[in-house]
C-alpha cells in the first residue's frame, strides 16, 4: 500500500474496537489504492485483472460490486462511527473492459442522519468514462434507534 492508503487506513483505526481488520483482507485482495480524500469524497483505484473476467472478457459484475463496496466502506469509516452496508443498488452502464489497466471508484456522502449514511459512487475507466453507479445506505453500528 502506498502512503495515502496507509495514512487513511490508520485514521480509520483511530477509536475502533480492538480486533477490527483495517484494511480488510478483501481490500488488499483486490489491489485497492486510496488516491484522494477530501470533502466527504473518497477516490480509490483498482486493477482490472483477467481472473475477474466474465465469459465475454469484461469485469464480472460481482467484482464491480466488490470494488464499489471496498470504496464505500472506507469512506463510511472515515466520516462516521463504524457502520455496515444495509443496501447497495448498482447500475451497470458500460462493460469494464479487460484491456483497462485500472478503474477508479469515486464515493461520496450524500447525507447523514443519526443512524445511517446515504452514499453514492461511480466507477470510471482510465479516460473518465462512466462504467457503473451505486447508491448505498450504511447503518451506523450501535446507533440508538
Structural commentary:
With 145 residues, the chain is of the alpha+beta class. The chain has a single domain (3-12, 20-140), classed as Thiol Ester Dehydrase, Chain A (Roll), CATH 3.10.129.10. The chain has helices at residues 3-13, 25-29, 61-79, and strands at 33-38, 41-47, 83-92, 102-112, 116-124, 130-140. A six-stranded antiparallel beta sheet has the order 1-2-4-5-6-3. A hairpin with a 3-residue loop joins strand 4 and strand 5 (116-124). The longest helix has 19 residues, at 61-79.
Short description:
This protein has about 140 residues and is α+β, with helices and mostly antiparallel strands.
Name the descriptors:
globular, Thiol Ester Dehydrase, Chain A, 3 helices, single chain, 145 residues, 6 strands, alpha+beta, six-stranded antiparallel beta sheet
Secondary-structure map:
Elements: H1 3-13, H2 25-29, E1 33-38, E2 41-47, H3 61-79, E3 83-92, E4 102-112, E5 116-124, E6 130-140
Antiparallel strand pairs: 1-2, 2-4, 3-6, 4-5, 5-6
